[in-house]
Amino acid sequence: LGAEQVDAVALYLRQFERGQGIIIGDQTGIGKGRQAAAVIRHAVLKGYLPVFFTKSPSLYTDMYRDLKAIGFEDIHPFIVNSSSDSGAKIKDANGNVIFTPLSGKAQEELLTTNKTIATESLESIEWHKRTGRKLPNPDTTPTVNIYENIDYLPNEYDMVFTTYSQIQSASYYKRSWIESNCERGIEGSKRCKKVIFILDESHSAGGFDSIIGNWMRRVLPKTHCCCYLSATFAKYPEVMPFYGKKTAIAETGL
Questions:
Q1: Which residues, in sequence order, are bridge partners of residue 137?
Q2: Hey, CA dihedral for 243, 246, 252, 254, is it positive or negative?
Q3: pLDDT value of position 254
Q4: Which residues of 190-224 are buried (b: 16+ CB within 10 A; e: fewer)?
Q5: pTM (predicted TM-score)
Q6: Helix %, strand %, coil % for the chain, to 5?
Q7: What are the pLDDT digits (tens) for 16-44?
Q8: Alpha-carbon Rg for the chain in angstroms
Q9: Does position 170 have pLDDT exceeding 70, yes or no?
Q10: What are the pLDDT digits (tens) for 42-55?
Q11: Burial level of 246, CB count in 10 A (0-12/13-18/19+)?
């Protein structure tokens, strides 16, 4: 790490101890990715679950290379994007594919449990409302198959890579699964770990009336801490409440 990067990581570690967040607003070229890699490495070594958010799945490869550059390439990321997203494959410097995301069906089987219940049951009605699905006609469809997400990261993985689009528009269970991990995290647990958010290009997630913006403002307080990274973090006034959920911006009274 360069001197500026060391300073930023040290400031992050102070916020980690306080259970708060930090905004790293370095301009392009300083190396925010390398700093994010240090945060991810620290989380894994301390027994926390790092969830890395970024704007484009092609940036997963950049993060892998940054992790490798700081001597932390023995990683096992769970990629939330499905295998149909070709850009989500993580490649090494020679273009060889190192990690490939699971198919959508395989992800659903891994992260959810299914059961069959009566269509008109209260549980069914509440589930359809919560997931935004239309309740079938009980006369033609007397039973429905519903799913509930698990609340932990399967043992074979040690971190999560996701794009903001996966929260904004992908299957409901994916964002529900990440939120469940944040809610159920226990200090020192090897199964239900406390969660740390690493938010690359963080201004992309702060829309005031968007799905991702509302979700982030609800979920961030449930994390142990977070690291926002963006050269234009204060791009719009509407994003500031998003930062206020984990920083002293909440104390300004604005």
A1: none
A2: positive
A3: 67
A4: eebbbbbbbbbbbbbbbbeebebbebbbebbebbb
A5: 0.90
A6: 45, 20, 40
A7: 999 999 999 998 888 899 999 999 999 99
A8: 19
A9: no
A10: 999 999 999 999 99
A11: buried
Give kind and range of the element (H or E) at residue 197.
strand 195-200
Q: Are strands 21-24 and 225-229 parallel, antiparallel or unpaired?
A: parallel
Give the Cα separation of 194 and 192 in Å (integer). Answer: 7
| Tokens standing for residue 9 | 């990581």
Asked if 202 and 229 touch (Cβ cutoff 8 Å), the reply is yes
- C-alpha span between 155 and 216 (Å, rounded): 25
* Position 94 pLDDT exceeds 70: yes
Locate 182 and state its tokens: 């944040």
What's the pLDDT at 1? 92
Sign of the CA dihedral with 187 first, then 193, 195, and 200 last: positive
The Cα 104–Cα 84 span in angstroms is: 8
C-alpha 198/C-alpha 33 separation (Å) is 10
